[in-house]
Amino acid sequence: MPRLHLFELEDQHWFPKTIRNYMTDYLQHVTNSFDMYKTIGPVLKKGLDSTDTKQIIDLCSGGGGGWMKLADHIKEEFPGTKVHMSDFYPNIPAFERHQKAHPEVIEYEDQSVNAMEVPNELKGLRTQFLSFHHFKPEGGKKILQNAVDAGQPIAIFEAQQRSVAHFVQFFFSPIFVLLMTPAIKPFSIGRLVFTYLIPVVPLFIWFDGLVSVLRTYSPKELQKLIDQLDNGDRFNWEISFVKSGPSKVYYLLGTPQ
Description:
By secondary structure, the protein is of the alpha/beta class. 44% of the residues lie in helices and 16% in strands. The protein has a single domain (9-256), classed as Vaccinia Virus protein VP39 (Rossmann fold, 3-Layer(aba) Sandwich). It is globular. The model has no long low-confidence stretch (mean pLDDT 94).
């Protein structure tokens, strides 16, 4: 399938913040319910060890992604490591819930953070979960270049491939939204209204999910971005996947030599 960089609704500055938060809350609920990232520890270890850091700078955190579960693994596997969550459109209520659940692990940035221009004071292993596909090639290149220029390791994770199988899988996502929404915490009347009475949340998640598949980079396309970087040869690059139950989590890892 060719890569099509169509627009996702939640990326738009005019998109209602409340609806965006309902959508990212659903995504974090799914990833945590299935503990999607429980097997990525070895990838994170390579990134952390490359600069001997105990700080993870999570970019494009959305509603917190899989950190509610992943923080437990971090605490067990990498004691003393802190996770600093951030986003261009920070979901502060979600960040606060994560920090309250894991105060010894989770911190967050309450100001907007651009993944292409990370502030110099945010140092550590940069991570992105289910978000790199949101960026056009020039934006993706800027994210990688910014990490190289700062000498900071970066690990990018995606749960989908650009394939017919994954496209069909996401086609049925509204059914899962309807089934799983009652279990999302904290309870919200508004979430129920915009999921069942005015079902824009399942519709928008369906649309953005299908677009996400079409925007996902293939390994060859990721390698092309790497090849275009200035001083990219100062980093070691790894493009692969780890098994996570019946699924796979695909990743790009860049570490300073």
